[in-house]
Structures are given as C-alpha cells and as structure tokens.
Amino acid sequence: MKKLILLMHTSLDGFAAGPNREMNWIKVDDELFDFVGKLTDQADTALYGRATFQLMESYWPTAADRPNASRHDIEHSLWYKRVFKVVMSKTMKGKDDGKVRIIGTDIEGQIRQLKDQPGKDILMLGSPTAASFLTPKDLIDEYWFFINPVFIGSGMPFFKNTFEKINLKLAGSKIFSSGVIGAHYERIRIGR
User: Fold this and answer.
1) How wide is the angle at C-alpha 27 spanned by C-alphas 32 and 68, nearest 5°?
2) 3-state SS assignment for residue 63
C-alpha cells in the first residue's frame, strides 16, 4: 500500500501562503532542495489541489530548459514530468492523458484506490485546501511541515476547516542552516 505524504511550508503563525497566495517568505536553498529531492525520489505520484497544480504546471514542465536552470530546477523538472499527477478539483476540466488525472467526484474513494495500487509513495506538495479536506478523512499517512522562521500576520491558513483532534507521532526532525525546521509526523491510527 502506498503512503500519502504531505510536504507543506508554513510560517510560525500557521499560514501556508500570504493574503494574495504569495510565498516569497519561504526560505529555500540547496540544502532544503537536496533534502526534498530524497523524498521525491521515493514517490511515483504527485497529488495536488487545483491552484497548486496550475502553479506547478506553469513552471516545472519547462524549468530544465531555461538557460540559467539550476541543478534543482533540472532534477525537479525531470521528476515532475515523469510522475503521475492527480489533481483534486471540482471545477477543473480535462481528460486523463496517462500522466494527469483530474478527480472531482468521490475524491475520498479515488484517493483510497490510488493508495491501494502498487508502487512508490504519493507526495502532496502544498495544496492546503486539499490537505484540509483529506486530513479528517484519515487519508494522509505522514506530514512533513517545513516551519519557516517568520510571522506573516495574515494569509491562507495551513488548515482552513475545523475537525476533531488528530493525534500525530513525531517521526523525526531536521534543522536547516536557513533556520527552517523540518518536522516529520506520522498519523497515529488506533486499532489498525
């Protein structure tokens, strides 16, 4: 069974993006890119909400082709083009093309079917609205929170809706030289 692993940047005051979806406060450098690259190497599927997918699709398919592409741009672009992408959206239309599937109905059931398939893990990069939907449905197995040393004051909260308490277990952590703290949590499932 595949694991669904969420990777999300957050500010110290709990926001995933600024008021206009800006993310210029997120600290990224080669150390963090290399670390996340090890996680992407263990995944063959990427899961996105509509807004995050559109953002990714506008950059990553051609990022490696740019004249000043960094090593990270080249590596992540190759991974992005190779992996199967699943987009959660009730408004986005399009047909499956073998590399992208849009799911807008029975999202919970389709994610469970996806997790039951053989293969590597499923990574969910960002997508706070989708994460807020999947978390109370017990579909996310692990969380990597990249806590940035900044208060941004307002914006898109990490979790938008309220749900019952969900217990997590700290599986590990990493302090990056940029001041970002990577906190890795596993979902505690009682009786399973």
Assistant:
1) 75
2) helix
Which parts of 41-189 fold into alpha helices (H)?
Answer: 50-57, 71-82, 107-116, 128-134
Cα–Cα distance for residue pair 163/135, rounded to 1 Å: 9
Q: Structure tokens of 181?
A: 């703290």
What does pTM read for this prediction?
0.92
Provide the CATH number for the domain formed by 39-157 in this structure.
3.40.430.10
Residue with tokens 């506008």: 58
* Range scoring the smallest mean pLDDT among 59-73, 88-102, 107-121, 126-140: 88-102
Q: What residues contact residue 82 under an 8 Å CB cut-off, 6+ apart?
A: none
What the block records as the tokens of 106 is: 């029975």
Confirm if 108 and 137 have CB atoms less than 8 A apart: yes
* Domains of the chain by residue range: 39-157
Res 117 pLDDT > 80: yes
For strands 4-11 and 168-175, give the pairing: unpaired
How crowded is residue 105: how many other Cβ atoms within 10 Å of its Cβ?
7
Give the lowest-confidence range in 6-20, 41-55, 57-71, 152-166: 152-166
The pLDDT score that the predictor gives to residue 31 is 96
